[in-house]
Amino acid sequence: MTQLWQLGALELADRIRSKEVSSREVLEAHLTRVDECNGSLNAIVRLLADEARAAADAADAATVAGTAVGRFHGVPCTVKENIDLAGTPTTQGVKALAEAVAPTDAPTVERMRAAGAIPFARTNLPDFGLRVHTDSELHGPTRNPWNPNVTAGGSSGGEGAAIASGMSPIGLGNDIGGSLRNPAHCCGIASIKPTVGVIPMASVIPTEDFTLSEQVMVVEGPMARHVADIRAGLEVLAGRHWRDPRSVTATLTDAGDGERLRIAVMTDPPGGTTDPGIAGAIRAVADLLANAGHDVVDAVPPGYERTADLWRMLMLDDIVKTRQDAPDDTLISKYIHGEVDGRKLTEDEITQFFVTLSIAGHETTRNTTAHFVRLMDEHPDQKELLLEDLEGRLPNAIEEVLRFSPPVMQFCRTATGDVT
Fold first, then answer.
1. What is the full DSSP assignment across 1-13?
2. Residue 106: how many CA atoms within 13 Å on its side-chain side?
3. Cα-trace Rg, the chain
4. How many helices and strands, by DSSP H and E, does the chain display?
5. Is 224 within 8 Å of 233 (Cβ atoms)?
6. What share of the chain has pLDDT > 90, as a percent?
7. Residues of 356-381 as b/e, b for ≥16 C-beta within 10 angstroms?
8. Measured between alpha carbons, how far is 203 from 140 in angstroms, rounded to an integer?
9. Beta carbons of 394 and 355 less than 8 angstroms apart
10. How far is the C-alpha of 45 from the C-alpha of 88, rounded, in Å?
11. What does the alpha-carbon distance between residue 234 and residue 219 come to, in Å, rounded to a whole number?
12. What value, to the nearest 5°, has the Cα angle with vertex 67 and ends 65 and 73?
């Protein structure tokens, strides 16, 4: 017999509307699933059980009264802990923001509530969402529900693990360099990075103003186990909002009956190596679309490799600049500022440092960053020493990146040389 926690968001909403089950029953099924799974996964970092129960009871009362209800009426949902959820802290996964309580909802949370969804839990992310696996200073590591020895992805890895394990049917994450798509891939669920401006986003937690890289690249979006739920989530979340000047009125339409679409496909992006399994999966989808009668064309966006370079440069520049006023005088702070022992570091040295953090993750930032900094600063053959030490100390981290994040691995090879 299928359990309630195994159903998708839209199917749950249909059963609640038809009074086959109550919202309270659905919520309790997911709370029970959290009790069963979260101790080993650490995907959910804050439960809002009492508030959610009250909202579920209100949803059931609306159903009985025959009140018009939304797309996700009575369905529990989760929210990544760098998206404002009124009355809870937007921690960004760091201790410094552990008590940074948001007084109001982010636009995406506001719209999910308006559609009838019930936020009942917050999910983990790496510090400030800056890595492709999920291990935070505040909450610790999140495990992959399929295999605890491999990554759940990041930075929305808490959402990925919670949804894949059935603790949540649908949730909210965000993405600037893969943070929706990467954990969806690692955990075997679905997501989408919408075009910037389609889904609005805003926060009241400092810093409220976006950096340039965030203005042009960061988005929020839905995560779920079913593509139909992602589509419905996109439709619920999309559209202009007064708090986000980037947001636009987005009209999302279906193809007409018998309409033949022209679809571009890129199985092997230039400038790197794509895992054959990934390329094969994309080609298989392209073949299905072609067999369905659509016009599928192999294409590479103009300036693709240069765009990837600009993404890296812009991200690193913003990371450095947002920390320039930090009072911390530790080696890591000085390295972030671009200077060690009075000597300005080269762009290549700074790039190597951030690539190291990206590969090694939280364990490195906590325990061995100063060691890597000294190696790169004191020895002329910095690259070789850094990578030799990194490989010796962190074989599991490197294997994890190699197996589950080939695009990041290729970026690391480009920036620092082949580490394999």
1. ---GGGS-HHHHH
2. 28
3. 22
4. 17, 12
5. yes
6. 61
7. bbbbbbbebbeebbeebbebbbeeee
8. 24
9. no
10. 11
11. 12
12. 110
Specify the length of the chain in residues: 420
How far lies 180's CA from each of 117, 192, 208, in Å?
20, 7, 21
Check pLDDT > 70 for residue 327: no
What's residue 312's pLDDT? Answer: 77
If residue 366 lies in a helix (H) or strand (E), which one and from where to where? helix 362-367
Q: How far, in Å, CA of 110 to CA of 247, rounded?
A: 15
Which pair of tokens denotes residue 224?
A: 């779920």
CA separation for the pair 232, 145 (Å, rounded): 25
Q: Are 136 and 44 in contact (CB under 8 A)?
A: no
Burial class (CB in 10 A: 0-12, 13-18, 19+), 282: middle
Residue 329 has pLDDT above 60, yes or no: no
Collapsed DSSP state (helix, strand, coil) of residue 191? strand
The DSSP secondary structure of 85-145, one letter per residue, reads -TTSB--TTSGGGTT-B-SS--HHHHHHHHTT-EEEEEE--SGGG-SSS-EETTTEEPPPS
In angstroms, the CA 56 to CA 76 distance is 8
Q: Which residue has the tokens 């419905």?
A: 232
User: Euclidean distance between the first and final Cα of the chain, in Å?
Assistant: 47
Tell me the pLDDT tens digit for each residue of 161-219.
999 999 999 999 999 989 999 999 999 999 999 999 999 999 998 766 787 888 889 99
Residue whose C-alpha is closest to residue 110's, from 205, 199, 224? 199
Average pLDDT over residues 125-151: 93
pLDDT tens string 342-388:
556 555 555 555 544 444 443 333 334 444 444 445 554 554 555 55
Catalytic annotation, residues: 80, 155, 179
| pLDDT the model gives residue 334 | 47
Mean pLDDT of 92-105: 93
pLDDT at residue 379 in the model: 53
Ramachandran region, residue 128 (left: φ > 0; alpha: ψ -120 to 50; beta: rest): left
